[in-house]
Predict the structure.
Amino acid sequence: MKRFIIKTFLYGLPVILLIVYYAVWVKPYIGGDLGLLGQIGFVDDSIQSPNFHKSPSSCEYGNVPEDSCVLIIGDSFSNKEGIIRYSDFLAEWSNLPVYNLQFDWRRGNLFNQFVYLSKVQPLPKIVIIESVERELVSRLVNSQVGLSPRMMIERGVIDTASIAVAKKKSPVAENNSYLATLFSGTQEFAKKRMGIANPVKKATLSVPMFSCTGKENKLYFYEDDLRVSSKESVCLAKKKLENLFEYADSLGIHLYVLAAADKYDIYQPYIVGNTYAKAFVLDTLAATCSSPRFVNSKDTLSIMASTGVRDIYSCGDTHWSAIGAEAVAEMVAERIMALEKDTTLFSTKSKISAKMSL
């Protein structure tokens, strides 16, 4: 019996130590979507806590305002809770109300949402559609301008279920005990560390780009950032983008399309011994799309990275940090003011700084 107990203890010791390690040094520091996906702990030392006096208002199908305002139709970069969004800065600076359309963007094509909505009710003059880079081509290729609202629904182009705003779930009592949850988390952590079905990729950078203790020159990004689009698909996406601009113009709507650059795309020039494929979608669209209403966030973010600006993206997240979100918001605001020929629409950071220097 004694020998059995000793053997059991020796065999179980590595598991016990792994659970303790996970409970003490990993679990308390897991944050951001990459941390959750990859079971990775991040000690983020960047200071990013701006105080906003105004935030984007939410609107749903049926109550989208028609008056002077800015309507945003976007994915997680526009709508996700718990991060600092470029839309927060736009709302803070804007002299017009800013609205985020609430819908299930995971199920619905952003561009088709805009087309459908524009055919069933009047929309504001200024509309921003924001899409993350890795989904941009497929969303554009599958956009349909020429269908009626009824045909869009019948053909499944618009998913009516995505229109309904997801209701917040009421708190549910935790069925699993703390130890069971801890054991389950340790299992996931062990599998991810062994590279089993880990959607988070890791690379070493030639220069430090983040303020994460011990990970200053490590890039963590979502595997879908490596999704490859064919040149034919990108070419078709460009044509569909131009069709969307023409369609919006015919309705008197000034449509702006914001491309949210993938994290990998911005940092790929700094990856040591990079063996991944080169991201080219945004570069190609920017070079071939003649409309100034296509706003390529990479233009600003890549310059920031080249000058050594840290924490453009959160180290443990696929999204922009406050630094990146503010830079993109200013880019969008300046573009809108230039094309609308109205410098009073936004009071951006640079405009405020210019006034203070006078």
Observations:
- Residues 126 and 254 are 5 Å apart (CA to CA).
- The mean pLDDT is 85.
